Protein 1
Amino acid sequence: MKRNTQIRTVRPESSRKGVQGLPCFVGISAQTAGSEGISLSLVEIPPGAVSEPHVHDGYETAIYLLEGEVETRYGEYLEQVVVNRAGDFVYVPPGLPHQARNLSETRPARALVARNDAREMEKVLPYGAPGEDSAEKA
């Protein structure tokens, strides 16, 4: 297996919108830096915005909330709730359905997000709670 032998610098100039529906500045990933087992991104939740419900397929996520206050609903029916504030470290296990909401209507929330999968963006899957009628979403 060929290993990277150089330090790489990534300066994302624009964000991309992922399955979660949030702006994401991808820093380190397989695509940007040739990483093999880690990714690191800056995610922004605009004022009052809510992510799409989703799961991370097969990888762990560690979050450090830089700015703001975020409510995360999680669980099979998104029935559990946790509120995190700037300075909190947050762990999301693989396969746990969740949805984040910025509690501020005037300021964005920003977080550094690390994952133990260099191709994690390809493994973010939309989530519909059991019994949710897809016709209701249309």
Protein 2
Amino acid sequence: MLMDKIFVSGGSVITGCYLLRLQANKSLSVQFGRFNSGQPISVPASTYLYIGSAMGKKGASTLAQRLLRHATRQNGNPQSIRPLLLARLCAAGLGTNRSQVPSQKTLFWHIDYLLEETAVDLTHIIIHRTTTSIENQLARLLANDPQTRPLANGLGASDDRGQSHLLHVPESLTWWQNQIDLVASTDSQNLY
């Protein structure tokens, strides 16, 4: 199944949630900052999903800037999806221009450490523009999918105790495509 690498839905706001589809092209051992007392985590070659959000209204905390940050590496060698991401963000009216694209980043969030690996490609992004914080509900829904499993409990979810926002997922693009409907419907449901 062929699908867009970047899908944007929701209202005309600059905040929202997103899913990142990652492909680890080889098995890795990754130290996720201070997570797991700084001990490396085994990351088998496979497909992963990260659930995130950006609810800020200006600067680096906006949805556009957060996503561009994810597509940037510390050494300045960006993820290959970044030019397309910039074009889609501009087309969606998310107020980003080339002068605002980060040239490099400091590693801060757990996901930064995985995206820094050159053997990990950011392949697809689902973006849902919303003023409602739905990241944690969406992460719980995805974690309860029998086809997913956390890479490590608590990883990628320092503000959502006991949960993981970094999941091992099926490699099927059909499964990924189905997540578009899930994200859009999450915004209008009471999930608790």
Protein 3
Amino acid sequence: MTLPYEKYLQEVLIDEQTLQARVAELGAQISIDYAEHDRLLLICILKGGVMFLTDLMRHIIVPHEIDFLAVSSYGRGKRASTGNVRIDMDLSEVVTGKHILIVEDIIDSGHTLRFVMDVMEARGPASLKLCTLLDKPSRRTTEIAIDYIGFQIEDRFVFGYGLDLDEKFRNLPFVGVVRQEALTGE
């Protein structure tokens, strides 16, 4: 059983209606941008990007495929990146010659996504772009170009809508800010 999330919630940062409206806008823009391409592959970064991917792909009207990549740099129970990025699960599809769109839940330091983009670029795609639901530019330590941004947010610890709090609460339909006092009381 999942514990009630309310104890950890300081505030709802982005409500469900606002999230869904922005995801629809992103899907429409991606559909326009890829209208002439027949080899679009959406690569979801697991686990956090799953909810975003499933909602986003409903709004992308051009034919596309999906695949999944699991990378880690945090480690279970950690709240900051270790700086060491590794691929835990690689793609099942060959990306050579395809138009790749990486779909991510959140980018803060940029370190993990820089690693992913470099790995994908080395595999010879026709094009490579990045789409993130949340962007924390104030935390950026590595330069990375983001082609599609759902929301820019301040440096706050967030959860919900795919983002976890120690692997819990990914199922919430909104993005909330973690109440720090609740974490110290565990």
Protein 4
Amino acid sequence: MFCYFAHFRLPGGAAVTLEPGSLRQIAQVLASVEGLERALVHVPTPAGTGHAFPNDEPGPPLALQLYARRIEALEDALRPAGALQALGTAGDVEALRGMRVQQQIMLVRALPIEPLDRELPPRATRCSYLVHYPGQAADLSAWHRHYIDHHPPIMRKFPNVREIEICTRVDWIGGLPGMRVDFMQRNKLMFDSPDDLSAALASPVIREMRADFHQFPEFAGGNAHYPMLTLDTPLRA
């Protein structure tokens, strides 16, 4: 599976809240993209949502994760005449016209976890912890091998975690105006609610995560963590 990541921000990082009408417009654009398996729309959690790294920069006003089994489906949607051009600075969604986009396609490594006994909540209440590593490792293969071998067994211990993904970079063809980035890795942890996310990240598991972090092979660039409300957008059949 491949995932297209797009983070939208106003110049200078000014805060903005997207109105429900704009989110509906964005969902309509995503529903028009052929070949998508899943489309996640992330917006910031309410102020005061606790997480493990509160001094990180604020999350973007909008982040998208678009999943497809074939990378060509994402690349076609990004063509100059593709469906995702509607999200660009000259596109159909007025709320996004002044925003700058940071974008990347990556390979998705979805990790199996024990399912929770309770039912899934309504779509609009889920919450994700988005993490990215923008820099470089001295030995990228060794870095990924350590991370994938050691970090997920700890991640699975988080109370009430619903999903765990680790995404690694690939070469890809774009076409949506905006910054292309080449982050070496992105992760997503999904929970049922901001309260579940905050409780998990306040649990003793976070100490195990930090201890393993100090065992990572050499890398530069640090990381960033964003708690985000997540809408699993319906796609056309």
